[in-house]
Amino acid sequence: MPAFDAVLFDLDNTLCRHEQSAETIYFGAFERADIEPVGTPSDLWEALDGDPPPDDPTDYLADGFARVSDQYGVSVDARRLAEGFRETVDYRAVSFVSGAERALAAASEHGPVGLITNGPSSRQRVKLDALGIGEAFDVVVYAGDLPRRKPYPDPFEDALDALDVRSNSALYVGDSVEHDVVGAQRAGIPVAWFADGGEWDERWNEVDPPAYVLDRMGGLADVLGDDASASTV
């Protein structure tokens, strides 16, 4: 059996998914602002620069909408759109990834369980409460409230310190190669990458392969309770 003293999870797209579509939120922002729509959700995601600052997400979104409007050669009230975006998005509208509840139960039976999420506490606590897992973790690190987020090792190290667990004795479970796999590896933590049916892309060749690849979240129970040497479950 793998000798893991604790299991740490990512939240978004690892344990839960958003039920609102990107289109609902994006075009809802225009509707609330009473502005004729321009562009697409992907235009906004590409225009946004890095992770939003926890202290001023409205300005962050406004900058993104301004870049989209410039791209299409139109003038809009970007701040009204940002406010419309925040009024439209419902962080309570989340549901479990298939198999996530089984994975959490297996981890809890195995030992201490932690959560490391790049979102701020003001946004992520709502999701945990909506899922009914607000008390499911022995430690929660809201990296969005820290000076440095994943993929920096700081949030991972904070969780390890709180649990008094060595990095090579923990397992981190997450879906993002850029943030989860790279960040955990920088902290010296073995990773179970939730591939969700995807495949390792050649653009990640400079990243060390994860210790485990989970095609389904329920497969974590096999990792924690099996001697299997295969990396994909």
Automatic annotation (TrEMBL):
It comes from the Archaea. Keywords: Hydrolase, Magnesium, Metal-binding. GO terms for molecular function: metal ion binding; phosphatase activity. GO terms for biological process: small molecule metabolic process. Its cofactor is Mg(2+). Belongs to the HAD-like hydrolase superfamily. NCBIfam families: HAD-SF-IA-v1. PANTHER family: GLYCERALDEHYDE 3-PHOSPHATE PHOSPHATASE, N-ACYLNEURAMINATE-9-PHOSPHATASE. This is HAD family hydrolase. It comes from Salinigranum rubrum.
